[in-house]
Amino acid sequence: MTLGLWGCATPLPVEDDSAVKEQIEVETEALPEGEGWWYARFHIDWPEGEAIRWYMGTLIGGEVIAPIFDVYYRDVYVWRIHRRASRDGHGHVFSFIFYSTPQGAQRIYNAIENHALVQSLLDSGQLTQVAVDDVTRITRPNIEDTSDDHWPESVQKTWPAMIMGTSRMWLDLVSELAADESAQQGLEAKYRKVQESVTAVWREQGQHAMLHHINAVYAYQPLLIRY
To answer: Of the N and C termini of the chain, which has fewer Cβ atoms inside 10 Å?
Structure first.
């Protein structure tokens, strides 16, 4: 049986994107102490009647997030990728979610804002918005603050480690497959092919390479699958 998953049924917690459209440079000394969760949300254009362009999130992951993470990985304690597309108030969004200090978040947000490809995608309308959080306030200080609040507390606190590993594998897989594709065809065409290859890997290898081995960690005990 094949299941098509269109992102989480429960939307990402969104506070007020209208208030965080642009990152404001703040003196490091003025930022609060501590750590928390930070979002960088890339809102991808999705015209009515057109198919979801999943490859755009893959392009952002491979060309924007991967190189920025390579530079600023010391600022990130835990992180993950989130992808969703639904005809609602949020639409098609690719998110980089990370646990860091406000200082680290500001460095990463500045790198995103100043990235030439991000600006090009905004100018062309392929990205309708890049929304980031206000670095002067830590609103999600706890490791469980971005987990599903329907889960038991023990799962909320430990789940970020699992999804970070999954996200790391996905991002590395994107980079590996992108290296095999020529850039001469153009970035969109290149990442269409990369997305197709990632989809094939998930379809053909996901059951054993991922689900089977997760099941092994949990001693091959049965689990409920709901769809």
So the answer is: N
